[in-house]
Amino acid sequence: MTHQSFDLDADIVELTPFVPETEAVPTAPLAELAFRADAWLPDETERLRTAFADDRTIDEIAAMLGRPRAGVATRIHDLGLRRNSRRSWTEWDDEEMARCYAHEPTATLAARLGRGVSALYARARLLDLSEPGSPSYSGWEDAQLRAGYEKDVPVAQIASLIGRPFTGIIARASTLGLRHACQPDDWSDAEMTRALELASTGARYVAIAQVLTAEGFPARNGRSLGQRLRKLGYGRGWGRPWIAEEDDLLRHAYTTGASLTPLRERLGRTPHSIRWRVEALGLRGTHVHRDGFRQGPVWTAEEEARLRADYGKIPTRQIADQIGRGVRAVLYHANRMGLTHGFMRAFSADEDRAIRNAWTYGVSMVDVAQALGRDPAVIGKHAARIGCRFNDPARPVRGPKTRRVNRTPVTLQSLLALDSTDAVDVDLPLAA
Question: Is the entire prediction scored with pTM above 0.85?
């Protein structure tokens, strides 16, 4: 049996309702209880559900029903209602967050406030509230985890839904003995070509998998199809809309220079998603820490100037040692600055001519590399492409009598001059 995976819609804040197990019913007969004036009637409960679905605030619902705010909040929690609220946070909401966030599971607090878990994490960071110390998984969280694995929802989406780290979700699923659908390996070229054609139309992975199955290809799930397409270089984001709390947290980070890491880890946002949202909100260039979501110290103007002056002219490892950074960090930052390494630039017509002259007149490949400012391995590969293999036994070699003790450095100009000058009179180092 194959599972069909699907992406979560933007308005989903839980995969399945969870009702805590009640205490055992006593066997003795119950005495008749008098009617309580504050009991919730079916009509009131239905009106509450309707108002909650319309995104009315808890204060508005309380006024409409003529009940205390705390009573309405408790009833919402008992009914297990949740939503991606578009309403602003009130003073009471913030006070409740400050009072309970560090001492109560976030999922429980989210249910009482009638908001999604992701909204609470974003709001907590905005209020500078401390993180609770990895509380145990609640019954509601386990229920969402089981439902997500059963429906083959991507793990990253489950993590964002219940507000847990990605690795924590995987560990908890292992403890519960849950497994995602397997990923077959028998992918044919025809199947992948057709999948890429359908992906280019913007169709969802689940829809693509269904079309492929209908056309006679093996049944796949959307998750394995997405993984296979990404291996071929095709990629797309989940596209989960940003909620108001996340936007507020992002603006706050750019105003105060706070870390953007919580948006990545707790809220399941990628660096690319953060960059896109920053541009959409007009926050580009205003963050105090320009490398906000990146690790390591911020690059100074002096370091960037040195990198711009030396990159491609001296070995990258030497640059990294001089400025106290790793080689990979230097390469990544040079790429972000739009710098092109000298060894990677395209060969010009003069350089091709110089290589041919060097090959013809027996000049060492190492000297040619030094003259052109490139790596010898790059020179060797390019020379082979233009028909000049320096390790070819048939290559012309100058005799020992033409060698001189005091040689001038080889330059591009001296190599270009070889085809118009007697090689015996040219002061160049020769290949052995």
Answer: no
